[in-house]
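does this look right to u?? NAP version
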Amino acid sequence: MGSEPRLSEVRDVIIIGSGPAGLTAAVYTARANLRPLVIEGSPSSTSDQPGGQLMLTTEVENFPGFIDGIMGPELMGNMRAQAQRFGADLLTTKATRVDLASSPRRVWASDPSTGEEVEHRARAVIVSTGARSLMLGLEAEGRLLGHGLSTCATCDGFFFRGHDIAVIGGGDSALEEANFLTKFGETVTVIHRRSELRASKIMQDRAFNNPKISFLWNTVVEDILGSAKVEALALRNTETGESSRLGVTGVFVAIGHVPNTNLFAGQLDMDEAGYLRTNADSSTTNLDGVFACGDVQDHVYRQAITAAGSGCMAAIDAERWLEAAGVEETSLVEDLAS
Ligand code: NAP
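got this back:
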């Protein structure tokens, strides 16, 4: 007698990524009885759980529903528990490779306990791997992020009322953040490594005409000083070599973002900056049965609430796509590999 064939599940949905987009997609698909598998990523060096950029944030005051605000990690913990309550399975590991053109779609991830690469299969895949802010690469950034150091003025500007603030970068993001921060800060100093801005003319004019904004040219940040919170920046002028110290209690790093899309190269359509392309007014991608939501496909809004909204869209699109394909229940099929 031969051994019984090993049965492996073909899921209805695999969700890759567990920020607000992925977990909202998980809540919706779980409530639709699609029992999603969320490959949620690995914890970062500064948090004990995955959950995207909000795990690196302290207080979140602009996510609707929390009158007094909520800590970023707590919000993500709640979303995670809510998804699990409806039957989502969470796998704390990173996806290592994908084959999204095959049927069923295939996603490989390392087993959290053995490290062995395991193949997961699903009829539909929702990609919500997010984006990350580029950082300067200083040791202090890990320690002070959320303690005077931020990468999002829209999210955190409000906490810096009356502060002296520095914005690092010379592109549109830096000037947009600087302009926005003048609503709150006492002073806003833009620190740029060259003598010429990369930002568009209109953004430059706006910043130059704002009396609260001043510029430090040809200047690099060598260190962010402060043990529990930001107290000052150690700077160096690249022309003169002169070192200086700038007393600030708020620092915004605005040197660009990178979408987490390496995994999908050659399979999913991307724009020139590497963001996934979705079709107008939907979360559908160039591949049938593959949906994208959150910051991985949005370089404009980048908010937790917009990511969550697009996660809901992806879940509904996936559910309708599965229905149209005539598949409503998770089923077991023979694992051909056994
Ligand atoms: P970006 O245009 O790539 O600008 C990044 C800036 O950061 C550059 O000035 C760069 O300096 C500086 N930088 C990069 N690495 C650095 C480092 N290690 N240390 C110090 N400085 C560093 O990025 P972005 O401003 O985020 O904009 C991204 C895209 O979104 C752009 O196409 C932009 O036009 C668009 N955007 C548009 C708006 C708007 O229209 N309202 C708002 C935001 C963004 P160098 O100049 O020396 O390279």
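The pocket of NAP is lined by residues 136, 168-174, 176, 193-194, 198, 255-256 (CB under 6 Å). idk if thats expected tbh
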